[in-house]
Amino acid sequence: MKSYWKFLIVAATVIVAALIVSRAYTYRYRTAGTITVTGLGETEFTSDLIVLRGSIEVEKYDAGDAYRAIERDKDRVVKFLSSHGIAQESIQFDMLEIEKQYSSIYNSTGHYQGSQFSGYLIRQAFVIESSDIDIVEEAAREISSLIADGISIDVFNPSYYYTKLDDVKLDLIGMASADALARAEKVASNAGAKVGELASSRIGVFQITGANSNEEFSAGGSFNVSSRNKKARVTVRAEYKIK
Question: Which end of the chain, N or C, is more open, meaning fewer C-beta atoms within 10 Å of its C-beta?
């Protein structure tokens, strides 16, 4: 009787071991039965929207005088931009920023005695959004001439955008996916196999840089707004089954 149970135990052990080996073999086969590749999609495009930001400011002792002065300067800025072909509806002014100004008082020995009110500083920012990029660029280069007319104005470098960027991204994903498939087929062919169905895929982050720049890519994605001509790229990591 004891020999009978010993035989059953040995048989059960052999069966369990066979199952473990079988599952391990199946797992290795499935793991080895895929190809993982990375495809690249890349294209260049030109921005179709320019955004120009700036601000004007005045300093006056009296608040009323300061307000009237900023209104005059604003009208002169609008006339200048309009004379350069920029539509008035493309020019938007923000709310006024008003600050009270104080000057420090020192005695004859140089010790600080306090401060006294010295007037008002009024600042108004503006932004221009237009598809007429050449016109706005030319105006941006010449607008500083208003300083010679007594207008305190600051203008920042233009920002460039593309209004159909979503279409570009979709095209890039298609390009990267096709490139990944071509790479997988090449690898499979060299190994005497064929590519089967797609097992999984993952899209990388979009990198949008200047077309002729040496900008570094970012782990979170890049989005260049300083260059009119841009380059976009994305990668797709794909895993295919092999036949």
Answer: N
| Burial (CB count <10 Å: 0-12, 13-18, 19+), residue 189 | exposed
Phi-psi region of 114 (alpha: psi -120 to 50; beta: other; left: phi over 0): left
- The residue out of 143, 158, 173 marking a domain boundary is 158
Q: pLDDT, tens digit, for every residue of 21-67?
A: 334 333 333 445 899 999 999 999 999 999 999 999 999 999 999 99
Do 40 and 88 lie in one domain? The reply is no
As a whole number, the mean pLDDT across the chain is 87
Q: Which residues contact 215 (CB under 8 A, 6 or more apart)?
A: 209, 222, 224
CA distance 136 to 133: 5
- Residue 197 is encoded by which pair of tokens? 């169905």
Torsion 108-112-117-123 (CA) sign: positive
Helix (H) or strand (E) holding 9: helix 2-32
Distance separating alpha carbons of residues 140 and 163, to the nearest angstrom: 21
Strands 112-130 and 49-60: antiparallel
Q: Do residue 97 and residue 191 come from a single domain? A: no
